[in-house]
Design brief:
alpha+beta; structural constituent of chitin-based larval cuticle; Cuticle_Struct_Prot; 124 residues; Insect_cuticle; cuticle
């Protein structure tokens, strides 16, 4: 299972860099660093880097959890990075490129505070 996950992530990351964000140089990019270690107990780690600036790494942190990240350059030349943890509570990415919800309007915040401070006492 871990080998499949590792292979899928590597292929997806490379495919994304070549087909979605890349330019002419991405087609001819080479992998110049690749390290992979899979132990008999199922733990693993890997790191790779390509000549066009794509990097990725991941490490198992327990029997059902991993921690990792990747980085690449957008077509505009901006460095995009993402780190993540995947465990029994799900996938938790962290990056400045992820969408964020809009702020809660002040009127709603005041309403919520009023409701919190003016709750009816339960009748027994």
């Amino acid at each position: 299972m871990n080998k499949f996950l590792l292979t899928a992530i590597v292929v997806a990351t490379l495919a994304y860099g070549v087909f979605a964000g890349g330019g002419e140089d991405d087609v001819h990019a080479d992998t110049y660093k690749f390290e992979s270690n899979v132990e008999y107990d199922g733990t693993f780690n890997y790191v790779f880097e390509t000549t066009n600036g794509i990097t990725a790494e991941e490490k198992s942190t327990g029997p059902h959890s991993v921690k990792g990240g990747f980085a690449y350059y957008s077509p505009e030349g901006e460095l995009i990075t993402m780190s993540y943890v995947a465990d029994e509570n799900g996938f938790h990415p962290k990056s400045t490129i992820l969408p964020t919800p809009p702020p809660i309007p002040p009127a709603i915040l005041r309403s919520l505070e009023y409701i919190r401070t003016h709750q009816k006492k339960s009748e027994n």
